[in-house]
């Protein structure tokens, strides 16, 4: 092949955009008389310098021989070392006898696959210079590894030492500028201008770089482990460990992530907090470099600047890698949470949406960010950003699930929430609004309005404040987040918004009430009960609570009678009302919707073994307390050690059957048997218990105990004011 010429116009892939030969006279490329195989992992310019050194020719002659210098004496050395054109690759391959693929793998663009050349040269990913391992240079005869150009190249895994940044003699950066065309390459030596040279002098420093001192690292040093992880990602082309286990990231994306994360740590954290999280030997070197650089703030140097040394990058990697190696973004956020406290201690402001992150970071790292700032977010923002889920993320602009949300949250979910000092009715309404804002940008006032204005933004904020102060807030927030995600998939078969609009007027007409009474075998002449059942059925169909103001406006005591209505409902009456509700929905085009619906608990991560059709209440015992012992719902709730709301919902779903009319005085006989005169005197007079407490002991009403006391001649105390 020696002596055979290839014209530039006939190069494979040659076109006017690829070659300057279109503007200058054609030139001939001949195969080189000396062949030299590249070293594994070597950069293309290092290999070509070795060719020039072996041949004893200048750098300009090497470039001309491989077709990179045309007759116009033009060459773009940085371009061919980063992302050479097809024509340049073909010319180098023809002249050297090395395959095109092998040459392409020796350029900087090969480190990041399909990354655009401008991103590789922008300084984010690679350096405009190169670090080096003196021992590697000594063993290879001055051949330079391609990965030494990486910004995140800081340690040699083979020789367990930090990479060196500068020449030990002249302190100059290596390979920042191409060699002068008239200089014969000397591999392994410093190519910086000699301190005594001036003008166009070719005198170089020439120091043997293999003699540079190194900083040795232990076998299991965190910096070595971090460097191995980075190189493994570069070799594989993607990251699949830690926070990337569920969402793979390209090597380019991984390098971007660790750059942004390392920059945030080094820029915003307190010095002492960073020092606690990195090896002491690295920190000492970093401090010495900062002092020598005369920087007043040890964290002032940005990781984007070209003068970052290997020790600084190793410090940043040791602080950032544990976050990226966490099992999931939530765990990564917990590992990074120290940064928020460190920022506050330093006097920096931690905004609600966290530190200023680059928009180009991956989705898993954004999840880490949101999980990290969880402690500085209020309960509403926590729900908006879904920080308690496995994959926190920012709110969606057009997310709205109000058609799938009742104004009062399903009782089977609300009763699992611990809210001391707050009525369950208010909790259920606040939880529905909170569910509406999960992952959404909508404001609380607008959310309240879309759910029928059954509550206010102020009340919702107060309830969420109480809930977020409880130890089980994480469970509550996770349940709401999972429920919102479930409803966002259109699994709810009921359009609650349509029902709220449809049932705004009277639901149970006179004709409908007569039908209900006929089916349930009830008397017709009770307009008050008809009104109460209308409210009850409205709540059942729409999921919206009855307004107390409306009930109070229709008569004294109407609200209290409505609250106690479930205790008086019979199974026949409930079936008749449900049948009427079904007919009403069918008549208004909602035949495909079920009468009622409840989210599947297994989809929300709630164990099915704690699911109970009546919230864990012994329904038969409850029926006995209501029908036989004539207890109110409040007293029955105390007897069962549950809340009155649980009793009310249990009776709504499982109404107490009607009992045959009891013999007059039967309850008084039960009280006499359970409370002889001496025992009643002891409980009421000596122990000072109330009639209500004594009635609860024997399972009768306080009125029956009062009658028995008067029968025994025991004077009753006046009621407390």
Kindly describe this structure.
The chain folds into 5 domains: 5-115, no CATH class; 222-376, no CATH class; 377-494, no CATH class; 500-595, no CATH class; 666-712. 47% of the residues lie in helices and 2% in strands. The strands form 3 sheets. Strands 1-2 form a two-stranded antiparallel sheet. The protein has a two-stranded antiparallel ribbon with strand order 3-4. Mean pLDDT is 83; it is low at 1-26 and 294-306. The radius of gyration is 40 Å and the shape is elongated. With 721 residues, it is an all-alpha fold.
In terms of DSSP E residues, the strand content is: under 5%
Instruction: Tell me roughly what share of residues is in helical segments.
Output: 40-55%
- What gyration radius follows from the Cα positions, in whole Å? 40 Å
* Rough outline: elongated
**Structural class estimated from helices and strands:** mainly alpha
Strand arrangement across the biggest beta sheet: 1-2
Provide the domain count: 5
């Amino acid at each position: 092949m020696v002596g055979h010429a290839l014209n530039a116009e006939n190069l494979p892939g040659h076109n006017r955009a690829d070659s300057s030969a279109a503007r200058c006279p054609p030139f001939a490329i001949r195969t080189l008389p000396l062949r030299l195989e590249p070293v594994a992992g070597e950069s293309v310019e290092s290999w070509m310098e070795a060719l020039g050194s072996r041949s004893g020719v200048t750098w300009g002659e090497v470039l001309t021989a491989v077709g990179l210098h045309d007759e116009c004496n033009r060459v773009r050395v940085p371009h061919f070392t980063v992302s050479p054109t097809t024509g340049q690759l073909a010319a180098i391959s023809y002249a050297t006898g090395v395959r095109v693929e092998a040459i392409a793998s020796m350029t900087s663009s090969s480190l990041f696959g399909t990354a655009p050349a401008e991103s590789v040269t922008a300084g984010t990913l690679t350096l405009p210079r190169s670090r080096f391992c003196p021992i590697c240079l000594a063993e290879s005869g001055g051949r330079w590894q391609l990965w030494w150009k990486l910004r995140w190249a800081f340690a040699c895994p083979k020789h367990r030492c930090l990479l060196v940044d500068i020449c030990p003699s002249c302190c100059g950066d290596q390979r920042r500028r191409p060699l002068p065309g008239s200089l014969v390459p000397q591999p392994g030596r410093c190519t910086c201008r000699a301190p005594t040279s001036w003008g166009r002098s070719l005198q170089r420093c020439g120091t043997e770089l293999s003699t540079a001192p190194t900083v040795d690292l232990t076998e299991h040093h965190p910096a070595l482990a971090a460097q191995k992880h980075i190189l493994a990602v570069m070799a594989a082309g993607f990251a699949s460990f830690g926070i990337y286990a569920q969402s793979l990231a390209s090597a380019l994306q991984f390098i971007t992530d660790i750059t942004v994360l390392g920059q945030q740590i080094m820029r915003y954290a307190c010095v002492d907090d960073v020092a606690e999280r990195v090896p002491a030997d690295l920190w000492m070197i970093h401090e010495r470099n900062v002092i020598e650089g005369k920087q007043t703030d040890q964290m002032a140097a940005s990781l984007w600047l070209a003068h970052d040394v290997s020790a600084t990058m190793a410090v940043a990697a040791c602080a950032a890698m544990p976050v990226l190696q966490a099992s999931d973004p939530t765990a990564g956020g917990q590992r990074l949470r120290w940064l928020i406290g460190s920022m506050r201690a330093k006097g920096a402001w931690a905004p609600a949406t966290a530190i200023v992150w680059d928009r180009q970071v991956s989705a898993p790292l954004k999840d880490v960010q949101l999980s990290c700032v969880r402690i500085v977010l209020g309960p509403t923002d926590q729900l908006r950003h879904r920080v308690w889920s496995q994959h926190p993320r920012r709110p969606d602009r057009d997310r709205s699930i109000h058609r799938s949300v009742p104004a009062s949250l399903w009782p089977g979910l609300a009763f699992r929430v611990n809210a001391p000092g707050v009525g369950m009715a208010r909790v259920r309404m606040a939880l529905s609004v909170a569910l509406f804002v999960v992952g959404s940008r909508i404001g609380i006032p607008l959310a309240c309005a879309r759910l029928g204005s059954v509550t206010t933004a102020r009340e919702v904020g107060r309830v969420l404040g109480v809930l977020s102060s409880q130890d089980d807030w994480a469970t509550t927030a996770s349940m709401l987040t999972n429920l919102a995600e479930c409803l966002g998939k259109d699994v709810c078969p009921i359009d609650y918004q349509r029902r709220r609009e449809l049932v705004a007027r009277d639901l149970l007409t006179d004709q409908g009430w007569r039908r209900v009474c006929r089916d349930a075998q009830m008397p017709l002449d009770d307009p008050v009960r008809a009104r109460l059942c209308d409210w009850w059925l409205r709540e059942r169909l729409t999921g919206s609570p009855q307004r107390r103001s409306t009930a109070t406006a229709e008569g004294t005591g109407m609200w209290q009678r409505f609250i106690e209505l479930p205790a008086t409902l019979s199974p026949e009456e409930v079936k008749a009302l449900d049948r009427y509700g079904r007919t009403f929905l069918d008549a208004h085009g909602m035949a495909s919707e079920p009468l009622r619906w409840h989210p599947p608990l297994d989809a929300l991560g709630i164990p099915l073994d704690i699911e109970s059709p009546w919230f864990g209440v012994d329904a038969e015992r409850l029926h006995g307390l209501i029908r036989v012992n004539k207890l109110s719902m409040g007293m029955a709730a105390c007897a069962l050690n549950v809340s009155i709301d649980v009793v009310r919902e249990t009776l709504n779903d499982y109404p107490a059957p009607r009992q045959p009319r009891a013999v007059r005085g039967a309850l008084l006989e039960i009280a006499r048997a359970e409370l002889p005169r001496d025992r009643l005197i002891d409980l009421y007079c000596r122990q000072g218990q109330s009639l209500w407490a004594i009635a609860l002991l024997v399972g009768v009403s306080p009125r029956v105990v009062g009658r028995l006391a008067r029968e025994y001649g025991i004077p009753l105390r006046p009621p407390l004011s």
